[in-house]
Amino acid sequence: MFSPPPLPTFSNPFADAAGGAATKLILTPESGSAFTFKFNPSQFSLDRAVSWEDTKPMKEQYGILNFTGGSSDTLTFASMLDATEDSGGVLPDVEKLYAFTKASVTDGAYKRPPVMLLEWSKLKFSGVISAVKVDFTMFAPDGTPLRCDVTITMMGRSFQNQTAKDKFFAAFSTT
Q1: Three-state DSSP class for 164?
Q2: How far is Cα 110 from Cα 175, in angstroms, rounded to an integer?
Q3: pLDDT-derived band of residue 22, with 50, 70 and 90 as boundaries?
Q4: Is 75 inside a domain boundary?
Q5: Which of 32, 79, 128, 142 has its CA 20 to 30 A from that of 3?
Q6: Residue 127 belongs to domain with CATH number
Q7: pTM: predicted TM-score of the whole model, two decimal places
């Protein structure tokens, strides 16, 4: 009989200090069902870049820095999907994540993939998924993937305090 190895344990800095339940990471599309990760991220990074132009006047040793603009924030996180106790495997969850990256066709017109809201404890990030990477790490005897590591990269805006859904999604192009 096949018996998978035990799951690794992860410390969760977002668990309630009084011993309460951990806050789970949730991805919510602008329409459709949210995806809740069973395991919180093992890695999480947030990047922002701004542009500066270095102009050097003649006969000066150092240039003058002129701000030329900013760019979208990039958020990347890694988590695990596990279905060792579910005979269906992890492919249904992987397909749900992939669906968040697909354009659709409505009335003959293409529509961009959905804008997503990522929420994890007090962290909120609004944006689009720009990459999904899946590394399958465990399989059932019949080849069904039971466990995988997922890395998701998003582009958008961090620390936005928008509560009205229409205001939140208005910042993104609809096409």
Answers
A1: coil
A2: 7
A3: low
A4: yes
A5: 79
A6: 2.40.30.200
A7: 0.75
pLDDT value, residue 4? 58
Query: DSSP 3-state assignment of 138?
Result: strand
The DSSP output letter for 108 is T
Identity of residue 61: Q
In this predicted structure, what is the pLDDT of residue 74? 94
106 domain-assigned: yes
7 — phi, psi (to 5°)?
Answer: -70, 145
pLDDT score, position 24: 92
Q: Is residue 10 part of a domain?
A: no
Written as one letter, the residue type at 10 is: F
CA atoms of 133 and 76, how far apart (whole Å)? 11
Residue 148 structure tokens: 């995988």
The verdict on residue 42 lying in a domain is: yes
Q: Identify the helix (H) or strand (E) that includes residue 156.
A: strand 145-158
Q: Identify the three-state secondary structure at position 84.
A: coil
Instruction: Give me the torsion for CA of 168, 31, 132, 38, rounded to 10°.
Output: 100
**Of 155, 6, 7, nearest in space to 80 by CA:** 7
Name the burial class of residue 129, with classes exposed (0-12), middle (13-18) and buried (19+) by CB atoms within 10 angstroms of its CB: buried
